Amino acid sequence: MADNIFSRLGRLFQSNVIIRKADDNRLIVKDLDFTQTSLTSNFIDRYQRLMQNTYSNPYAAAQNQRASYEIRKHDLFKDYELMDQDPIIASALDIYSDESTVDNIEGEILKIKTENTKIHKILHNLFYDVINIEFNLWSWIRNMTKYGDFYLQLDIVDKYGVVNVKPISPYDITRLEDHDPVNPQLIQFEIDVDKKDVKENYEIAHFRLLADTNFLPYGRSLLEGGRKVFKQLTLMEDAMLIHRIMRAPEKRVFKIDVGNIPPREVEQFMQRIINKMKKIPVINQSTGEYNLKYNMESVTEDYFLPVRGGDSGTEIDTLPGLSNNDQIDDIEYLRNKLMASLRIPKAFLGYEEGLSGGKATLAAEDVRFARTIERLQKIVVSELTKIGIVHLYSQGFDDADLINFDLELQNPSMIHEQEKLELLNQQIEAAEKAMDVKLFSRQWVYDNIFDFSDDKKTEIYEGIVEDTKQKFRLEQIETEGKDPAKEPQEPEPTEDEGEDDFSVGRSEDWGGSEKTHFGKNKTREDDGKVQKRHRSFGKREFKGGSPLAQSKASTVVAREGILKQLKKDFPNKNSSLLSEDNILED
User: Could you say which of 132, 155, 226, 580 has the lowest number of CB atoms within 10 Å?
Assistant: First the structure.
């Protein structure tokens, strides 16, 4: 079988943990499914624990558990659909998506971090042009928080990568785990729309909320905690409405004097009066017929009592309606429980007017909600990373660059960021005081206050040195108008340029002054260890090894003239040193 891109992707995603070794022998690990932090217990649900099966065949038992779980999963989805029709819960789902897709300073909802410019361009094109994440991510997060799961089918083309994504309904897909005894790590997805189709792990991006191991291998909806309370609240609201409708209206008591009417005819007489009050005869002007128009003032809840004798006469009394219209403490109790399960501050759902700190963002009002949003964003980023790895691998990336990138969604919490800044400010103040009083060294401050590693300390120190260089460069530009980094270097003279033998040498030619430790391109031979009194500064190296070397024509001519003049002034005498001819006369 040919080794195509799909077989290679299958081998790559045999496990959801991808490991690559970087150039510096570091291991880069991408846990795409959070398998390192979650308990992998498949097809276990709190509802099916009540039903113990007696199958002797493990495969049949697993199939039965899976079938029962699928039925219960669809029942949960039906409850979630009903909950989504409630205005409070529908607003909560919208708020989850709104707060998870906030733009950053650059106007992008997804930030790509990588040192490879090529990979950054490829991933930016994938997420913003191919997938159109700015428009689609909002609905993806809403469905994930509603059902606990969201599925995307990836269209993969060799050499091009992911060219399209297609959402799949959670009703129509099943996640298969531990179904192959030969390969226990195999993960597949079974799609049942028109016909059953099995997809590999790299073809499906499964966004799931891993909050409860009882729901594995699926996610747990954020609405699950309030599902029971929602049913109680719905029943309580219906009972309240029925009670208000039945008891709130005022009722009247009609005491009608029946006079001397025989007792057997009293009921007929009363019915004739009731019908007369209930129906109003109206004459239709076009046809001239009677139209018994219904009287909107219903009398079905009124009381008609026949009376006779004495001074009774006909009377109409009024019975008061319901007086405790504002008694909704039980409704408030259940509604507070529902909002507690949603983890959203009540102020932003319209139930509290006052906001502490101004109307900034929702997460700025409640730090706990900011942590919930951060957890949702981590799950989304994990599956987006999987899509990016499939895209890069299909385009030929296979080394450490395949997973050497990070994705980040903007956290809208202002208070959460302010807490981090306050902590950093306190650490800086403590470090400054400790160094000002000379009580602790910089090394101690790095180790105990900031808890930096050795590599981090080296990186920070090199950054400080680089900042100092840039500061000096900017000062030179401001004061002298010249950029030291761009000034041209003077070229070294060559032998053919006719340099004067007696010209003063530059410092970089002969080692510089005693303050200069380094030459132009290399270190000094003595490496700064020779004492000053043993050094020979200003020593010239002449061409040819002597100032009289015959390297130029002018030097040769001058030398011959000097010799002739000396021979003339001091002729050669053939006499010994002790000869009297050598005595000079006064």
Answer: 580
How would DSSP label each residue in 417-457? Answer: HHHHHHHHHHHHHHHHHHHHTT-S-HHHHHHHTS---HHHH
Residue 375's closest CA among 224, 227, 220, 229?
A: 220
User: Strand pairing partners for 18?
Assistant: 30
Select from 386, 412, 438 the last residue of a domain.
Answer: 412
Q: 150 and 13, same structural domain?
A: yes
What number of CA atoms fall less than 13 Å from residue 162's CA on the CB side?
A: 32
Q: State how far the Cα of 437 lies from the Cα of 417, in Å rounded to an integer.
A: 31
Whether residue 423 sits in one domain with residue 453: yes
CB half-sphere exposure, 238, CA atoms < 13 A? 6
CA distances from 88 to 160, 230, 273, 453, 472 (A): 44, 10, 49, 48, 60
**Cβ atoms 329, 319 nearer than 8 A:** no
Assess if residue 558 is contained within a domain: no
The pLDDT of residue 36 is above 50? no
- Cα–Cα–Cα angle for 544, 549, 552, nearest 5°? 105
Which residue, of 444, 462, 480, is where some domain finishes?
A: 480
DSSP string spanning 481-517?
S--TTTSPPPPPP-GGG---TTSPPPHHHHT--TT--
Shared domain check, 431 and 382: no
Query: Which range among 318-327, 425-434, 521-530, 575-584 shows the weakest confidence by mean pLDDT?
Result: 521-530
In a domain, 560, yes or no: no
Maximum distance among all Cα pairs of the chain, rounded to whole angstroms: 197
- DSSP-derived secondary structure letter, 319: E
pTM of the complete model = 0.61
Distances (CA, A) of 285 to 280, 289, 291, 293: 15, 8, 10, 14
- Domain range enclosing 452: 416-480
- What interhelical angle do 329-342 and 227-247 show, nearest 10? 160
Residue 106 has pLDDT above 70, yes or no: yes
Whether residues 178 and 81 fall in one domain = yes
Reference 156, options 379, 406, 385, 392; nearest CA is: 392
SS3 of 462-478: the string is HHHHHHHHHHHHHHHHH
